[in-house]
C-alpha cells in the first residue's frame, strides 16, 4: 500500500484486511467501515475531499445499496430526483434559502461562487487548465488528467475564469 500511496488502519486476519477499518486513498478519499478478505464488505462510508459522502452496503468490494450526499447536505434520490430538472432550475441553496431579489443572479450552488483562476474552468470538483489538461481540486491538489471527451465537455459546459 505504501507504494500506491494508500494507508490502512485496522485489523488483519490471516494477513488480509478484515474487520472495522479506515482506508485512506491517495486522492484524499477515505473509507470508514467493514472490510472482509481485503475488500469493502458490510456497512461503510466513502468520504470525499469535497465534503460529500457515500453511505453504502458493500459486498465483495461492490456497493449494492447506498446513498450519496452532496457537501451541502442534498441527498441524491434516483427515483425522485427533482433537483435542477426541466421544471425547477433552482440551486439547492435557493430551494433552502429562497431566491435572490430581481437583478441579482446566483450562478452556482455556492454563493458567492468560487473565483476561477485566469485561463481555467470550474468543472465541479476542481479547476481545469486546458493548456496542461490537468484538473486540480479546489485546494490545488492534482485530481486527474482530462481525456479528450472530458476536455471537450468542460470547454463547452463549464464556467470560465475570464
TrEMBL record:
One of its GO terms (cellular component) is sperm flagellum. Keywords: Cell projection, Cilium, Flagellum, Repeat. It holds the Pfam family MORN. Its main location: other. InterPro entries: MORN, Morn5. Coiled coil: none annotated. It is found in: Cell projection, Cilium, Flagellum. Gene3D superfamilies: Histone H3 K4-specific methyltransferase SET7/9 N-terminal domain. It comes from the Eukaryota. PANTHER family: MORN REPEAT-CONTAINING PROTEIN 5. This is MORN repeat-containing protein 5. It comes from Panthera leo (Lion).
Amino acid at each position: 500500500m505504501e507504494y500506491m500511496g494508500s494507508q490502512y488502519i485496522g485489523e488483519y486476519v490471516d494477513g488480509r484486511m478484515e474487520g472495522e477499518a479506515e482506508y485512506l486513498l491517495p486522492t484524499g478519499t477515505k473509507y470508514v467501515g467493514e472490510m472482509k478478505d481485503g475488500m469493502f464488505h458490510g456497512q461503510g462510508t466513502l468520504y470525499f475531499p469535497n465534503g460529500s459522502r457515500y453511505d453504502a452496503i458493500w459486498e465483495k468490494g461492490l456497493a449494492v445499496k447506498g446513498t450519496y450526499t452532496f457537501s451541502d447536505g442534498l441527498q441524491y434520490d434516483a427515483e425522485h430526483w427533482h433537483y435542477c430538472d426541466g421544471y425547477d432550475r433552482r440551486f439547492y441553496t435557493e430551494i433552502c434559502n429562497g431566491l435572490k431579489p430581481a437583478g441579482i443572479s446566483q450562478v452556482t450552488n455556492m454563493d458567492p461562487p468560487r473565483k476561477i483562476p485566469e485561463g481555467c474552468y470550474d468543472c465541479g470538483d476542481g479547476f481545469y487548465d486546458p493548456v496542461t489538461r490537468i484538473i486540480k481540486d479546489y485546494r490545488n491538489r492534482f485530481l486527474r488528467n482530462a481525456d479528450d471527451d472530458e476536455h471537450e465537455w468542460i470547454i463547452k459546459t463549464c464556467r470560465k475564469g475570464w
